[in-house]
Amino acid sequence: MLGNVLANAESSVKLFSTIIYVAIVATINTWPYLILCLILYFLLLFILKFPAFKNIRLLIAPLFFIVAISAGIILLDLSAGKSIDRGLVLFLRALNAIYVLNTMISSMTLQELLSSMNSLHLPDIMVNLVGFTLRYSDILSREMARMMTARKARGYVPRKSMWHSSTMKVLGQTVGVLFIRSYERSERVYHAMLSRGYGGSVVPARRRKRLQTLDYIVGLAVILIPLTSKMAELGVISWIMPWK
Q1: Phi, psi (5° rounding) for residue 232?
Q2: pLDDT tens per residue across span 70-111
Q3: For labeling, which of 24, 127, 228, 234 is most exposed (least CB within 10 Å)?
């Protein structure tokens, strides 16, 4: 049963604790304590027997931009004779936030995620934006795959490099056609939603279950990880429990 604790925990509790986690991590200014957050979170996932690297491929795109920005800050600081702490802190903050969000969201279904956002009284436009983005990003990726398969069936052979002129031309045409198709599809979907009574808000039809003790334990454990690191950074722990 322990292996299903995180997946079976109430989604609103998981989302709330994740938001608190990210908010506290954003205030930590020392990179060793940010690493401590990651270590403690890995330990929590290990205790709950949740796959720590589930959907890890989804982190590649956002981490690419974070690494680029952090590397730029580090190079600027080094050229100015400063330490690399600022860039390292930015990278570790982003890594904490992205990784925790990835693991928590991967433990929910789309319906659970939207329902939990709605139960936390987040704006309808945010709930709609998240729901539509997650639904149709998968549809568009499949459409892109079909278009590339059709091109290969017509004899298209990709070059060794993406920067080759012919490859760039084909990719540009493909993205352009995909944009037009996605726009047309969005219009059809929107009119279909209007005909079914869509009024600008989506209220997921899911009955909230009664919170159990394990729900509170999971939520509290997630929040305590960055809170402990922040207290250690501020010296509160050493003040409460002095070593001497």
Answers
A1: -65, -40
A2: 888 888 888 877 778 888 999 999 999 999 998 888 888 888
A3: 234
Rg over alpha carbons for the chain, rounded to the nearest Å, is: 23
Q: Quick check: 1 pLDDT over 60?
A: no
87 within 8 A of 70, measured Cβ to Cβ? yes
Tell me: do 191 and 211 sit in the same domain: no
Sequence-separated (6 or more) residues with CB below 8 Å from residue 57:
none
134 and 52 share a domain?
Answer: no
Report the distance separating Cα 170 and Cα 158, nearest Å.
Answer: 9
Q: Give me the mean pLDDT over the 47-75 stretch.
A: 81
Q: Which residues contact 118 (CB under 8 A, 6 or more apart)?
A: 127, 202, 203, 204
Number of compact structural domains in the chain: 2
Instruction: Please name the residue that has the structure tokens 């693991």.
Output: 103
pLDDT of 197 > 90? The answer is: no
| Structural domain boundaries enclosing 143 | 123-195
Residues 32 and 112 in one domain: yes
Distance CA 244, CA 241 (A): 9
Burial of 64 (C-beta count, 10 Å sphere; 0-12/13-18/19+):
exposed
Residues 22 and 46 in one domain: yes
pTM for the predicted model, two decimal places: 0.77
